[in-house]
Amino acid sequence: xxxxxxxxxxxxxxxxxxxxxxxxxxxxxxxxxxxxxxxxxxxxxxxxxxxxxxxxxxxxxxxxxxxxxxxxxxxxxxxxxxxxxxxxxxxxxxxxxxxxxxxxxxxxxxxxxxxxxxxxxxxxxxxxxxxxxxxxxxxxxxxxxxxxxxxxxxxxxxxxxxxxxxxxxxxxxxxxxxxxxxxxxxxxxxxxxxxxxxxxxxxxxxxxxxxxxxxxxxxxxxxxxxxxxxxx
Length: 232
Ligand code: SAM
Hints:
Elements (H helix, E strand, L loop, with lengths): L1 E6 L2 H8 L2 H8 L4 E6 L12 E2 L9 E2 L1 H11 L5 E11 L2 H7 L4 E6 L7 H7 L2 E4 L8 H13 L9 H5 L18 E2 L2 E2 L9 H19 L1 H14 L1
Parallel strand pairs: 1-2, 1-6, 5-6, 5-7
Antiparallel strand pairs: 3-4, 8-9
Helix pairs in contact: 3-5, 4-6, 8-9
The site of S-adenosylmethionine has 19 residues, from strand 5 and helix 6.
């Protein structure tokens, strides 16, 4: 998979792509990444990328020409272009799984009041929001979407098994986890996890997943019940 990110703050993305599982995916050739500085595509010698909004109002808007020129430079057959925006569809693990099927993902990060809408009309296939809150820019949102998506590529997370068992798969939250020591500040690890009895451990984990999902995420629990109903 190729992932390209258009931003006016390329340094924010560079360390992200150079760290941990994402870096490993790049080193293994599973992932190819490119950070594109929108400013490199500005026309004038001052490299201006923003301007005042038509109709007046606060803040600035990212100009369309530099973004269009940057896109024309990197678009390929089958590129899927995403704009991160609070106006987009809410991101979740189903969207991440869907995105993981594309071979070329292009992310446009907005800043200030956003990007000129004509870029969205002409180039963007999908608008994504990572939640009902406002970030300063699309970079943090792009990183969240990329990380969640790349985890679904075979060979990125150690065993594919560990992606399959994670929270939100099968509409359940994962149970809590523990490591050594068995007692910490007077708090003991649940006995069953020390028992070595795999069947009982599996049962404990499933029951804890179900009760935690019911208590913490009633919305998700409803989906789980529906999913179980469908399985019968
Ligand atoms: N004035 C805009 C609004 O109310 O919709 C918000 C602009 S925000 C300060 C600047 C940029 O951050 C946006 O263009 C977008 O790219 C990004 N952004 C902010 N919040 C986001 C969110 N929840 N999800 C995805 N991107 C977001």
